Amino acid sequence: MISDNQVRPFHLRRWSRGQSARLVVAVVLLGLTLGVEPARAGLSPENVVVVVNASSHDSRTVANHYVDLRNISSGNVVFLREVPGELTISLDDFKSRILLPLLSELNRRRLASQANEIAYSAGFPTSVDISAHTALLTDPNQKKYQLPTASLTGLTFYYQFLLADNEKYLDWGSNLYARGPFERHFSNPFLKLESRKRFDEGIAANDAGDFETAASIFEELFEQSRTIAPLGILAAKAQAKAGNSGVARTLLEQSMAAGWSSRAYLEQSDSLAPLLQSPSLAQLVKSLPEYPAVVQEPVAFDSKVGWTACGWPGQSLQAGVPYLLSCMLSVVHPRGSSLEQATKVLKTASKSDATFPEAAFWFTYTRDARTEPRFPQLANALLWLNKAGHEAEIIHSAMPVSKSGACVGLMLGTADISLGDRRWHFVPGAIAENLTSLSARFDTAAQTKITELLHAGAAMTCGPVFEPYNLPFKFPSAIMYGYYGSGVSAIEAFYLSVTCPYQLLIVGDPLAQPYAQTPTDWIGIKVDPSDSNHRRVEFSRQTLPLGTQATEARVIEIYVEGKLVRVTPAAKRIEMGLPQEVAGSLEVRSVLIAGGPIRPRVSHSEWLSIGDDSFLPAAEVMPGEQTVSVRCGGAKQIDLMHHGELVRSVQGDRGEVSLDRQELGAGPLRVRPIAVVEGRRIPGRAIRVNDGD
């Protein structure tokens, strides 16, 4: 239940229209952080929660494949058991049978410190009736164009609004994580009336030429909100105009440390450019990405912050609006994908990371109602892509029928898509989408469905579940392709570029990132051989030569049994002791995170034997069979688990378990023995069981 004092006003500047609006959201924590530092933003398998319809064989099968392909921890797999069977469900059913059970399970598992993406497997409703919320709209334009059907993924993204039973996610600019015009950096980011007033006073003082007063105000605000780097930039500019060059240089350094990443803006600023002659500043600026200063730069997503009206993360959930990225892995349906097609899409996409394909981005433009709304965005997208060295082109036809070769990004606007007879192909990791009305409505045969783009080779796509009209803020902006070419994950690219995604169903592999410049370092993980208790773990980072497409690791996250337990600078050697009561085979992971706004991540994992290994359970697949033998000396009972679910219990210290594929799903299974020894549960190492598909 959400109490009244948990709901508070949020002032949102609709930067796309220059109007003001009011949002009201509840600040509801997903869980606690186990006493660790806040995790770094971004996306790797550790940040993805796979949600499974426990009653659906298709859902289990797709999840089995994806968890195996992406090496997702079993602790990140959530089974829901009362999922409605219809394509469209009521808002009450969505909240009571999907959203609240999911959030409750995330709370129970204490995953708030790492869960950034909710990936629904197959077997889920695709749309939700939100007429109870659209009935509350008073703005005539909203009442006309915000129709009462939302997508499963859109409402999950807006979970905070749903918990507060608040309809303001229907505002045109309700996704504050989405990027906007470059000038949005310097809009008022604050919720508290006092801070909002101080920011406006700073702007007024600067406009009046009182730079000393403006600098003092912006420094004060920057000191209070160190995650909002533009405040430091405003303070630096005011100090520079006041003639205080030394103070201005210090503020610039602090702003870049806080995340400012626009090199072009600094070099083009009349007041800041002269400061860059300083050797230390010049070196810092040289390390910044060379993004054009036309739109806001892409940033890594973080569910543990509140996103503010200027597009920067606040220091806490209370500072802005928190979100959860969300997608479906597949839509297995007669008008969607077959099970075979769904798994093929995920297999292809999983091979795309950091492949840096030499492929083109194409934008179709036919001057009709489906392409005209996004035409004004094309110039910035082409500039961005060309600046980064990507091939990008506007195609003056509904489909790129005259093109040949490789495509990594395709923006369409047509009711019907023809993908059969073509001379071009999607490379692994490609993204594609289409501005049309019914592409994610699977209860009608009208218009080509988004799944056809996946079958053609795309890793991720999206489409509306109900009539969206041709409103550009309901669809990804063309700059999405520029962000993707800069190295963000597929799911981040989509949400970075659409300001009102409530109707948008996003489908595919959220982790696809062919242009990710991940750290090349390697992490060795082992039990310290000098520790007689076998409870001290060593992490040794081996620095490998950086190629042209790699970045230096700045931070290391450590996970034990899928849970984030430590965040530390990327030292060469790290030691970590485990509690005395911990014993058995444990999965230990390390995640290397690079610096910069995108923060690419790469993970390593090892299974370690901790503590007394005389009681170590083991499992083995019997040759040619779907049977697993389990054993553990001294055990009273051995439980065989699959993603946290009990498959079967064996009494005594050994036995065999037959796997029911109808119950567990097809594809690779990850099963794990847990033995009961002297009243303690001792986990063994998980093993992989394939069904030969």
Helix content: 10-25%
Largest sheet: 5 strands, antiparallel
Would you count the extended β strands for me?
30
Radius of gyration: 26 Å
Regarding quaternary structure, what we see is: single chain
Uncertain spans, ≥5 residues at pLDDT below 50? 1-39
Shape: globular
Rounded mean pLDDT score: 91
Q: Count of helices?
A: 18
Instruction: List the domain count as a whole number.
Output: 4
Cα separation of the termini: 45 Å
Strand content: 25-35%
The structure class reads: alpha/beta
Describe the structure using short key phrases.
693 residues; alpha/beta; Serine Threonine Protein Phosphatase 5, Tetratricopeptide repeat; Immunoglobulin-like; 4 domains; five-stranded antiparallel sheet; four-stranded parallel sheet; 18 helices; 30 strands; 24% helix; globular
